[in-house]
Amino acid sequence: MSTSAHVNSFTISLPGWLETELKSLPPAVPMVEDRVALVIRLAGLNVTHGTGGPFAAGVFETATGRCVSLGVNRVVPDSCSSAHAEIVALSLAQRRLRTYNLGGDGVPEHELVVNWRPCAMCFGAIPWSGVRSLVIAGSGPEMEEITGFDEGQVPGDWKARLESLGISVRDGVMKEEALDVFRDFARRGCTVYNGRGAGSARA
Amino acid sequence: MSTSAHVNSFTISLPGWLETELKSLPPAVPMVEDRVALVIRLAGLNVTHGTGGPFAAGVFETATGRCVSLGVNRVVPDSCSSAHAEIVALSLAQRRLRTYNLGGDGVPEHELVVNWRPCAMCFGAIPWSGVRSLVIAGSGPEMEEITGFDEGQVPGDWKARLESLGISVRDGVMKEEALDVFRDFARRGCTVYNGRGAGSARA
Prior knowledge:
The structure is a homodimer of 203-residue chains. Chain A has 203 residues and is of the alpha/beta class. In chain A, 39% of the residues lie in helices and 14% in strands.
């Protein structure tokens, strides 16, 4: 426990290797499958570099595939339980476009691409972000079974709930490739943090 | 739409007036009612200073009342839809204590105090933070009715769900004082942002 003074700000940063990746990225990724392949690759690199959990996300202009932001899970390195890949990517996109609403007037439609379904927090965060579509590699029980991560209390009909808010959901793009990253993560025995979620409830 | 380069980090900062408040804060706030009164006062000041929405939150050591962090809603000024008061306070506390888990081994129990119930995102974020209790001024429909803010898709039994994870919930501490802040906010005609939430669904 620190006895230091109050903290007035917090910063979430991408790891150095991802900053390098960004420089070699094509300006647009037109095919949805290629957007998913990209976030799966970054999730795997986040594991091999030891810079966070096995999750990555990107915000793209839906129509053109312009890559607005990429994020990875930064919970452990940035000491921030809300630094999930989705929150990082959405916040970086909003910072870059200087708007809290990626679906506001005069802004092209944006899509959030993630290598797995959102947890309870990110399910709640997506409607606030303004994105109009969500693309995920998978949403079954496999990720939790393989890694031990807890998705939290997400409603069973979460896809229908997002759709009812005008956010389309596409699931199952490159699911096996996404699972390979989780299997590699589990083999390495990396940190699994669930807070007061299932991990603690079982303890 | 910006054509600038990729952004590699984002920072959420407290407004200047709150940094000043922090310097004159007593080191501990032993009474729970005083903790709630403090966040209600800060929520009101966030409105009168025009530095964000009418919400504030604090993280306290449950037993001693030591104030670890205070946060206010920073969605509009920081262009970040997830910069709700709860996320700001929890992230600042985690940064100060240099841990992503406010309930980890060797850490005293922590309490999150907020001037209203959590939205869907913050409901999901609280279990990840490690806090062991939540104290709120109120949770009825009044806030949404008065301000137009949308809480999102929070389960009806959200309190029981937090309790099942070992997070106690105390509701109704200084509710009328909390509502006064929302009434003042509504009178001023300040920005209400709901993303793809109810506001957009009605539009």
